[in-house]
Amino acid sequence: MEWNHLSPRALTENPFSLIGDRWMLITAGSREKHNCMTASWGGVGVLWGKEVAFIFVRPTRFTYGLLEENDRFSLTFYEESFRPQLQLCGRESGRDIDKAAACSFTPLFEGDTPYYAEASLVLLCKKLYFSDLEPSHFLDPAIEKFYNADYHRMYVAEITDVLKK
Q1: pLDDT(54) > 90
Q2: pTM above 0.85, yes or no
Q3: Cross-strand pairs, 125
Q4: How far is Cα 102 from Cα 83, in angstroms, rounded to an integer?
Q5: What is the distance between the alpha carbons of residues 28 and 164, in angstroms, rounded to a whole number?
Q6: Fewer C-beta neighbours within 10 Å, C or N terminus of the chain?
């Protein structure tokens, strides 16, 4: 199936459902070394006059290092039949296995930015900003239950292209 290039503003999918219910893969790295991780936290919107995505990654995750080393990453979304692969990518570490190979995902590249042929929707992103979450800034004490001193780094990235099947 061929990819159609869309403007981020042409997306009609509900971002709450896409990210929170269907989940996404954050994929970072290069042609030589890349990794994906499952995420169900994040969002999309407009910031600094640009269409952006924002993601949250813990420093202990293997993908974190690849995000730090590269200016670009992809967010990919899949049909429900890929739920077992998304579960594997959230459960296993890229330090231990090649997740793409384990899931039979076919890596594709836009420049050096990896994404997977099996996705139904791809957001190609360029990092603009990062910030480490600071627990002293939590206004709701209930947020702390999500942490054991392993606080996320938030990345804000411009969505440079959208690919949809």
Answers
A1: yes
A2: yes
A3: 73, 159
A4: 14
A5: 19
A6: N
Q: Please give the pLDDT value at position 154.
A: 98
Dihedral of CA atoms 147, 143, 123, 76 in degrees, nearest 10, equals 50
pLDDT confidence bin for 8, thresholds 50/70/90: very high
Specify burial of residue 120 (Cβ count, 10 A radius: 0-12, 13-18, 19+): middle
DSSP assignment letter at 21:
I
- Enter the tokens of residue 30: 């290069």
pLDDT at 140 over 80: yes
- 121: tokens are 């929707």
102, 83, 81: which is closest to 35 by C-alpha?
102
C-beta of residue 156 within 8 angstroms of C-beta of residue 46: no
* Residue 51 tokens, joined: 């269409």
Q: Which amino acid is at 8?
A: P
With contact defined as beta carbons under 8 Å apart, do 116 and 27 qualify?
A: yes
